[in-house]
Specification:
mainly alpha; 310 residues
Length: 310
Amino acid sequence: MSEAKAGEGLGVPVAGALEPVRRPAEARGFRWVTRRLLRHRRGAIGGVIVLLALMTAVGGRALAPQDPLQQDLPSALQGPSARHLLGVDALGRDVLSRMMYGAPISLSIGAVAVSLGLAVGGGLGIVAGYFGGGLESIIMRLADVLLAFPGILMALALVAVLGPNIQNVTIAVGVFGIPAYIRLVHSTVLSVRERPFVEAARAVGAPSVRILARHILPNIMAPLIVQSSLDLARAITVASSLSFLGLGVQPPSPEWGAMLAEGREYLRGAPHLATFPGLAVMMVVLGFNMLGDGLRDVLDPRLRGLRGLD
């Protein structure tokens, strides 16, 4: 008689026979995370805001009511109306159309910059955390040096050296985030590489590349996803700040930070020029921050239990 049948005959519950094996959150996939995120109020609201921003970035140019560069000087500085829902700027250009055209510029700068910081900083952090030794000391001292500089000043210096355009702003914002990813990935890899399944893989002679791809990376993805969502908000803020200071996207490109800079001269007579781009930046940053908080609570088992998301 098998062990399972013997246990059933004696009325003893067989381990694993009544309860399914629960997988870790990282392995449950996108649908599992989405369902839990919808039960998280702040995360769900943030997700809706981010989704609307992405939809505007993807389809905004097709839905924009007017050409964002078309000038109508006789109607310059007019406020919101039936023809121009968000008013017009000093050159008679439709503010709503310029904001819809500016959405993909601002969001793409943030996305590419975060991807750059994640790729470079994450790669260096994995090397430092997994291989250790003198290479670890060099990489971590480099991260300490970069962290010693105020991030916005470092971005300003890079843009001043490279020149003010979209590509250089993206590089500057990406470099700004590299040291944070180095430290995050380094500390996470240090804890994962000592786990039994990694030791077992080493014991059977698995190459380092296979261990990193099959065992290390899947177990450090959760904190990276959370950090990346939060960094998107920071990257958009820094890029808008550089454009506001005249070191980012240059006119006549309709970027939100540049629109804020143009509108600051008319705050008394035409406050809508600065109000609506400022609200757009605020809402997108708020959305990414709320989404990041929700992902953190969903992906962290300790916080997930406290929030009642299990």
